Amino acid sequence: MKISVIGAGYVGCVTGICLAELGHDVFLIDVDSEKLEAIRAGKCPVFEPGLNDLLAKNHRKIRTTPDVSEAIQETELTLICVGTPQNGDGSIDLRYVIHAAQSIGRALRSKNNYHTIVVKSTVLPGTTENVLLPVLERESGKRAPQDFGIATNPEFLKEGSAVQDFFHTDRIIIGAQNQKTTIVLEELYKPLNAPVFSTDIKTAEMIKYVSNAFLATKISFANEVGNMCKAAGIDTSEVFKGVGMDTRINPHFFRSGIGFGGSCFPKDILALIHFAELLGIDPKILKATIEINDSQPLKMISLLKKHVNIKGRKIGVLGLAFKPGTDDIRESRAFPIILQLIEEGAEVLAYDPLAMPAFSAIMPGIQYACSAQEVVNTGIVVIVTEWEEFEDLDYNGKLVIDGRRIRKAQNEAAIYEGICW
After folding, report:
1. Which side of the chain, N or C, has fewer Cβ within a 10 Å radius?
2. How many structural domains is the chain composed of?
């Protein structure tokens, strides 16, 4: 197929480049000229293992443009992959998806062939049909589904393993207005041989939010249990090994620690809370999920203060990205930990193999190390992200407060405390 992808950020780049690998011709569209120039030069504007290699392999199948109309005229299917950031009240900001719909609609005015529009951006139930569809129809002067198809097709890509997730997905969710559009998307993803669940548009939009909310809730539940295990002298990992053997439950995401971050879980749960409240429902479990996640990182400081007066001391922080395998610092648990250390009068020396440039742009007032071992050599260390290289450091004689269960630190440190073990 000939496909246009609006948004050359994380989801757009991964999706577009992987679709090119499946044999499709892809237009990547973005208003950011630097992103487009990077792609034309064969370098992805986002970090994701394996993606640069795929871009190099499929460079001839991928074109870039800032002009939505140009891409629409030459393609048969458009994926909307722009961001839906969070407003102050927890709701999502729809300005980028609305702008994309306006641009698509104007382009469709001068196009005679049938076109399929797919929303991959994460939007709340009702957004595609009640907000974006009217914009498309108004701007194009056409009507769906007679003149164009519309669908939602949520993505389930994990940073650090997104390429693997794309080609080996658990399922493909298609929410379409009519059977013709469903068939187009089934054909698009046919080479993946993945289970396809077809439903209506609102249900597909809800599936994305509920998936993320459940996984986040599972993490917060694991952390609450982990806190109990810590107080009772029980190893939480052993508990969840036994619990996870139950096929009704499974062991995934039962990792007690300092909580979740990233671009999806916090934002999506807050959006779902806001959505529930608009419906007159008090989502108590979702609120508790956020409350536990917000409080969990600061337990690191309490554990640290059991062993040392941190005022005036240099404290090493290992890990700034919200998870290993990415340079993404959005909602990283490092932020509340470092801010609290500074408030308590500590001097902070931090290290991350990928995330220091982005982190230092937001927090220039702390020190950044040239190596992980330099951080450990401060003698007082908190571990925030479980990078594999942190298993190769020398922790002998150090005080370590661990939020991610680095086994070498647990085995070697003179004083070792895990947050939930």
Report:
1. N
2. 3
Claim to verify: residue 227 and residue 144 sit in the same structural domain:
no
**324, 260: one domain:** no
C-alpha–C-alpha distance, residues 117 and 106, integer Å: 13
Q: What is the pairing mode between strands 367-368 and 314-318?
A: unpaired
**Secondary structure class of 166 (helix, strand, coil):** helix
**What's the CATH code of the domain at 277?**
1.10.1040.10
Which residue stretches of 160-200 are H helix? 162-167, 179-189
DSSP state string for 114-172: -EEEEE-S---TTHIIIIIHHHHHHHHS--TTTTEEEEE----PPTTSHHHHHHT-S-E
Kindly list the catalytic residues: 264
Q: Show the domain range for 260.
A: 209-233+251-294
List, for residues 226-280, the tens digit of each pLDDT value: 999 999 999 999 999 999 999 999 999 999 999 999 999 999 999 999 999 999 9
- CATH number, domain of 357, equals 3.40.50.720
**Rounded mean pLDDT, 14-24:** 98
The 10s digit of each residue's pLDDT in 64-114 is: 999 999 999 999 999 999 999 999 999 999 999 999 999 999 999 999 999
- Give residue 363's Cα distance to chain centre: 21
Virtual torsion, Cα 141, 146, 147, 148, nearest 10 deg: 110
Tell me, what DSSP letter sits at residue 92? B
pLDDT digits (tens, 9 = 90+) for 334-383: 999 999 999 999 999 999 999 999 999 999 999 999 999 999 999 999 99
